[in-house]
Amino acid sequence: MSVNSYYYRKLHSLLGVIPVGLFLIEHLLTNYTAFKEGQQGFVDQVQWIHSLPLVLGLEIFFIWLPLLYHAVYGLYVAYTARNNTSNFGYFRNWMFRLQRFTGVITFLFVAWHFFNTRFQVTLGHVTETTLGPLMHGIATQPVYFALYVIGVIAATFHFSNGMWSFLVSWGVTVGPRAQRVSTYVWMAVFVIMTIMFILSLTAFTDPSFQDTSNIKFK
Amino acid sequence: MAETATAAKKTVKLIVTRQDSPESKPYTEEFEIPYRPNMNVISALMEIQRNPKKADGSPTTPVCWESNCLEEVCGACSMVINGKPRQACSALIDKLEQPVRVAPMSTFPVQRDLVIDRGRMFHALKKVKAWIPIDGTYDLGPGPRMAEAKRQEAYELARCMTCGVCLEACPNVNDKTSFIGPAAISQVRLFNSHPTGEMNAHERLEALMEDGGIEGCGNSQNCVRACPKGIPLTTSIAEMNRATTKHLFKRWLGM
């Protein structure tokens, strides 16, 4: 069986959902504890993740490498499109264009976000227990907050619309009716996830995230 | 008499994108021709052919185009009219905004003016084996019967005239990709749904699982909007996505 663009593209599509899409949901649920339970709940959640066996291996093989492949191949896919919404201003054609646009925005955002959070832990500037104050520092700067909101909207849109596309590309939603219902479902997911992410981001601006003096560590 | 005088003055304005040879640069020329009732873009082009003068009165070469059946079943006269790819024969002047902008479907190699080479589409049909192989050295006897409901569904797909409009509308059919385009994918569905054609279904699916095959689809769904025959192209693509996915796993598992 020769390896050709069919397999590269299918792998890109699959990795976008498993594990990258699942990681986005996991990330959202972790962040959301900051809104729901405050810094104590957030720290507990972060510490639980760090207690997982082979956590670095999980990160490398289930997040970073799949994400890198999805991002780089995705940039190539976006480059090969000849967007024509000016002549064909249909809803799905706009979604096609936005999928590629938000993909590029998400790529830039994730690279920057990785640099000012996870990479800072690697450098030893912060530890996993002081991520709350780190995020507080970022979220309280209006420009950074705005960039995070843009990044989060792009990421959730790309995920939700990408799921719609995934279901078509693997032959799950075949007929027009199934595809229409799928549009409604994934647009609802987009709205819900965006609200949850922004609530989490707003939660980090709370003064209780300034330091970890009241936090109990495991 | 007064009415006739006004009617005689009525004109049709066209802006035609022209190109002298496959390699030369395209340019536009404006034309103003006398109006007649029930004109279509073809008859407007014929008028230019009869009297090849630009709107400013200066002479020019007649505009080249291709057309054949003049009833929207052959696909030869596909061109971009007011931004949308369609057949010139069914593009009625009375229903078009003026000036009518006429351009070649430049996704395909332009030969001259509005004449394009749709050869890649016929190559695609050969690639996916869009036929039913029944030739042999002996009589194979009658084929299996086809259910009427299935036949009606297949008929919808059989209306494809290889006109190229879906490829022109598709954002993923361009010089940066080798995407085969919606038409050939739908033909795989047509021939794989035929009781005799089904016997070679795997060959056609495998052709779609090669470079430039079905993976090139980015779900912009312009094709189904643009198709002059109303063929459910996106349903065909999704169904072939399902079939190729099944085929992929079956092959991996050695089933």
TrEMBL record, chain A:
Keywords, sorted A to Z: Heme, Iron, Membrane, Metal-binding, Transmembrane, Transmembrane helix
Organism, scientific name: Gordoniibacillus kamchatkensis
Keyword Membrane: yes
Domain of life from the UniProt record: Bacteria
InterPro entries: Cytochrome_b-558, SQR/QFR_C/D, Succ_DH_cyt_b558_Firmicute, SuccDH_FuR_B_TM-su
Transmembrane segments: 12-34, 54-77, 98-115, 145-172, 184-204
Pfam families the UniProt entry points to: Sdh_cyt
Name of this protein: Succinate dehydrogenase
Biological classification of the source: Bacteria, Bacillati, Bacillota, Bacilli, Bacillales
Subcellular location: Membrane
From TrEMBL, chain B:
Keyword Nucleotidyltransferase: no
Keywords: 2Fe-2S, 3Fe-4S, 4Fe-4S, Iron, Iron-sulfur, Metal-binding, Oxidoreductase, Tricarboxylic acid cycle
EC number: 1.3.5.1
InterPro entries reported for this sequence: 2Fe-2S_ferredoxin-like_sf (IPR036010), 4Fe4S_Fe-S-bd (IPR017896), 4Fe4S_Fe_S_CS (IPR017900), Beta-grasp_dom_sf (IPR012675), Helical_ferredxn (IPR009051), SDH/FRD_Iron-Sulfur (IPR050573), Succ_DH/fum_Rdtase_Fe-S (IPR004489), Succ_DH/fum_Rdtase_N (IPR025192)
Gene3D superfamilies in the cross-refs: 3.10.20.30, Alpha-helical ferredoxin
Domain called 4Fe-4S ferredoxin-type: residue spans: 151-182
Alphabetized PROSITE patterns for the sequence: 4FE4S_FER_1, 4FE4S_FER_2
Domain of life: Bacteria
Oxidoreductase is among the record's keywords: yes
Needed cofactors: [3Fe-4S] cluster; [4Fe-4S] cluster; [2Fe-2S] cluster
Any matching Pfam family: Fer4_8
Family that this chain belongs to: Belongs to the succinate dehydrogenase/fumarate reductase iron-sulfur protein family.
Protein name as it appears in the record: succinate dehydrogenase
Source species: Gordoniibacillus kamchatkensis
Protein encoded by which gene: sdhB
